[in-house]
Specification:
Helix content: 10-25%
Catalytic activity: Eliminative cleavage of (1->4)-alpha-D-galacturonan to give oligosaccharides with 4-deoxy-alpha-D-galact-4-enuronosyl groups at their non-reducing ends
Strand order of the largest sheet: 9-11-13-15-18-16-14-12
Pfam families: Pectate_lyase
Bound molecules: 2-acetamido-2-deoxy-beta-D-glucopyranose
Main location: secreted
Mean pLDDT: 85
Biased composition (Polar residues): 102-117
CATH topology of the largest domain: Pectate Lyase C-like
Radius of gyration: 22 Å
Shape: elongated
Largest sheet: 8 strands, parallel, barrel
Number of strands: 21
Keywords: Calcium, Lyase, Secreted, Signal
Distance between the termini: 59 Å
């Protein structure tokens, strides 16, 4: 087979085809999980036909020109960073990681406190559904056009990623133009996921039961909550960094499904310039268990009297106790 080469940055010669009738446009538009990682690298780098096109490229008759055009139509920006985030890619970052000094307070250790440098950027005009797993290779994922409307509650459609029950998302940086970060429809695992600038919230947990995990990663500039816990069961967070935020986790205070307990477990979490680590509804038996963590203004838990009628829940105390807000190994010097 001849090695065909194509420069992805060629101007797009073809128009966008109708995704209702054209199989190439239809596939690329509606199968973001497969099309997007391909489009991101395909439009960016030299592609040789001998490296093999994905099976679904048959929908595009394996035509490179057509693939390029349709990638550009549905994932504008392709592998190129949107103009607003270019600075992120060119800024030289010094990665800071916390270390524990002998004899000091039980501060978290090994937590990275700077946004990692991205390895490229991907922009999509719809949320990316993750059925099983997605490893983003530290690319910056964002929505284009922008859907973030600050604290106006939007919905799952305005998320960056929608994880199906059991799915894992790893090694991604989520940009400022999306609105709802990650939505987990069931139990999910997030590994090394970073939010550059949280819009409505960073993660919404909807599982009915079981445990979801957040391992590593961090979130910046959440004017309200980082993790919104609307389902039930346990949210287990470790080695996580939060900076400038309202609350790290909040059990839904007034969701219509309220009635059961939610449990939050935090270990080795470092939180600066924000509010409590946990907002829990003690009347429903919620718990928050914190260990080896730091919050620089001594804010561990706010306890609420939650409801299922949509009313603003009343606050009923704050701080550690032996029943709802269990704290061990906690420091305020970070
Ligand atoms: C596109 O390709 C996939 C995988 O090869 C195939 O299952 C699917 O039916 C094709 N879709 C269309 C719209 O032709
Ligand atoms: C209560 O419900 C209102 C309206 O749905 C919402 O704006 C608010 O954030 C909720 N409060 C809490 C603490 O969940
Ligand atoms: C408020 O907290 C106290 C102490 O934990 C508890 O005894 C009381 O039942 C709570 N009140 C409501 C309305 O939940
Ligand atoms: C933090 O708050 C707790 C009570 O919630 C208090 O016992 C403790 O002394 C406070 N620590 C600091 C460093 O202010
Ligand atoms: C269970 C329940 O409805 N709890 C409270 C919800 O919030 C309202 C208003 O603050 C309270 O009156 C309820 O007792």
């Amino acid at each position: 087979m001849h090695a065909l080469t194509l420069l992805g940055l060629l101007p797009v010669a073809l128009g966008c085809l109708n995704s209702k009738t054209n199989p190439c446009a239809s596939f690329i538009k509606s199968n973001a999980a497969q099309a997007l990682p391909f489009c991101a690298t395909f439009t960016q780098s030299q592609v040789t036909a001998t490296t093999g096109l994905p099976a679904w490229a048959t929908n595009c008759s394996n035509k490179l020109k057509l693939l390029t055009a349709e990638c550009a139509c549905h994932y504008p920006g392709g592998g190129n960073p949107p103009a607003t985030t270019t600075t992120t890619l060119t800024t030289i970052r010094t990665t800071k990681t916390t270390t524990r000094t002998a004899g000091s307070n039980p501060n978290p250790t090994g937590v990275t406190t700077t946004l990692p440098q991205s390895s490229g950027a991907v922009a999509t005009n719809a949320a990316i559904v993750v059925p099983v797993s997605l490893d983003g290779g530290m690319k910056l994922y964002d929505r284009s056009p922008r859907v973030c409307a600050e604290q106006d509650e939007t919905g799952e459609d305005d998320a960056m990623f929608i994880l199906e029950d059991g799915a894992t998302l790893s090694n991604v940086i989520i940009g400022p133009n999306q609105a709802e970060g990650v939505h987990c429809k069931g139990q999910c695992t997030l590994i090394n996921v970073w939010w550059q600038d949280v819009c409505e919230d960073a993660l919404t947990i909807k599982q009915n039961s079981g445990t979801s995990y957040v391992i590593g990663g961090g979130a910046f500039k959440a004017s309200d909550k980082i993790f919104q816990f609307n389902g039930f069961g346990t949210l287990d967070i470790k080695n996580f960094y939060a900076e400038e935020y309202g609350k790290v986790v909040r059990s839904c205070g007034n969701c219509s499904n309220n009635g059961g307990a939610r449990h939050v477990v935090m270990d080795n979490v470092l939180a600066r310039d924000g509010g409590v680590l946990c907002g829990i509804n003690t009347n429903y038996g919620d718990t928050c268990t914190i260990s080896n963590s730091c919050q620089d203004s001594n804010k561990t838990c706010d306890k609420y009297d939650g409801n299922n009628s949509g009313k603003e829940p009343k606050k009923n105390g704050s701080g550690p106790d032996s029943q709802f807000c269990k704290v061990s190994g906690f420091s305020t010097s970070c």
